[in-house]
Amino acid sequence: MLRSLRIKRSLQSSVIHRKNPHFNNTLETLSSSPTTKTPLINLIRQFSSSSPPPPTPPPLSATPSTSSELRKYLGYSALLLSCAVATYYSFPFPENAKHKKAQLFRYAPLPDDLHTVVNWSGTHEVQTRVFLQPESLEELEKIVKDANEKKQKIRPVGSGLSPNGIGLARGGMVNLALMDKVLEVDKEKKTVRVQAGIRVQQLVDAIKDYGITLQNFASIREQQIGGIVQVGAHGTGAKLPPIDEQVISMKLVTPGKGTIEISKDKNPELFYLARCGLGAFGVVAEVTLQCVERQELVEHTFVSNLSEIKKKHKKLLNDNKHVKYLYIPYTDTVVVVTCNPVSKWKGPPKFKPKYSLDEALQPVRDLYKESLEKYKRQPNENDSKLSDLTFTELRDKLLSIDPLNKDHVKKINEAESEFWKRSEGFRVGWSDEILGFDCGGQQWVSETCFPAGTLSKPNMKDLKFIEEVMELIEKEEIPAPSPIEQRWSASSKSLMSPASSESNDDIFSWVGIIMYLPTSDARQRKQITEEFFHYRHLTQTRFWNQYSAFEHWAKIEG
């Protein structure tokens, strides 16, 4: 707007003074003040002929040529812009000039030293020239020291499994994937000291021969130990704290103090702050973890409903080492999964399932075939055979057909409900095998943590929260897929943990809502993303303050 006004003024000026081009500057300077009016007239008379001065031109608004001149210059401007756009889109870009169509005049060919880092869900991407992977503590110390001296920011990044890409930074990243060794195992004390880049599954495999394992696990095993600790990740079990509570000491590489070791005894104030510190207090180089005896667990999966759950909730939390609920929107189905040590006296339960896996999957397969016919789709030739697909793979394929159609999603949820009813039963295995959970494909997730009373006296707000979320979904007709997952943990003394509390009796509920990204189509992914953030915004504005809920660090979105 300001630029248009300036162009208009300059055109007006050129029209007024076009008959005296040699004196334009003088006239503009002198005519800018009322006090120069008389000298200006005298100056004109001195350089003009003896004939009477020309009549004063009419006001600018009355000059017919003004508007035509303005239209001429605007036409030139429009022509110039059109030529620029045509040149931009017809210019032969090299293959590595990515994202050409995203924004005008923004992108150029990517330099060879530019690293593109994408998180697991494909929801966040960053390009940087600084992506460093030290192989030793000395190399890490040098990286941090150099960055500090150059006043450059650098961020620790793990396996990139967080849906929000918390570790991604354009300024620079340091990744410890090459620092993945087990440094020391104390079988008597059941402790293990490791480099922070080791993945959870690597660690579990390395220490199982010592008869020990981690106390609890998140849903997946590919996180680096440094990352899973720093974001306050958790498993499930109202008597078990988040994973950061398993840390008994840490080695931090800091910009100001170099490498320091902190624990409950050495600098406890910093220890409880940095233990779940998001990498803000330094790069975690080594971690010492308190482990437990490796044991077999019995997993029991059964289907219930919210009315029944309310009656048994306190007992389920107290009687089971691990417990979680999976809610299926637009149905009254609640899938309950408990895990407990195998009884030394009774042994594993003897149970014969009513349905085979193929029979359990049949309702989902039938819906997939029906949906292909309804939407007139043909199966992709490169796809696996229907009989080879797991339940989560089938769900992704179903959702990809029409992911934001509420009625279609509702049918998928109903088929999933039937799948779980046919999957009731028991499973026996080691804790590191049993406690995992197939989360499905790429996805958006928002998980909140809020207080749920104590073990002896649950406040039941955790179930009330779920009731309100389910009502919201139906009222707003949100195409919410399954599951809404609810887990519990004990408190953590880490000050930045969402489950932080000084009381050991407090318990916390963790609730995750989800939307999958089952397609690679950019337009469709954008639509799903917008719908998910609408869904998340509704839960945030209506429930978070009411329940004193905080979002999981690994799932916070700006």
UniProtKB/TrEMBL annotation:
It holds the Pfam family FAD_binding_4. GO terms for cellular component: membrane. Residues 123-294 form the FAD-binding PCMH-type domain. Residues 51-61 have a biased composition (Pro residues). It comes from the Eukaryota. Pathway: Cofactor biosynthesis; L-ascorbate biosynthesis. Gene3D superfamilies: 3.30.465.10, Uridine Diphospho-n-acetylenolpyruvylglucosamine Reductase, domain 2. InterPro entries: ALO_C, FAD-bd_PCMH, FAD-bd_PCMH-like_sf, FAD-bd_PCMH_sub1, FAD-bd_PCMH_sub2, FAD_lactone_oxidase-like, GL_DH, Oxid_FAD_bind_N. One of its GO terms (molecular function) is FAD binding. PANTHER family: D-ARABINONO-1,4-LACTONE OXIDASE (PTHR43762:SF1), L-GULONOLACTONE OXIDASE (PTHR43762). This is FAD-binding PCMH-type domain-containing protein. It comes from Lactuca virosa.
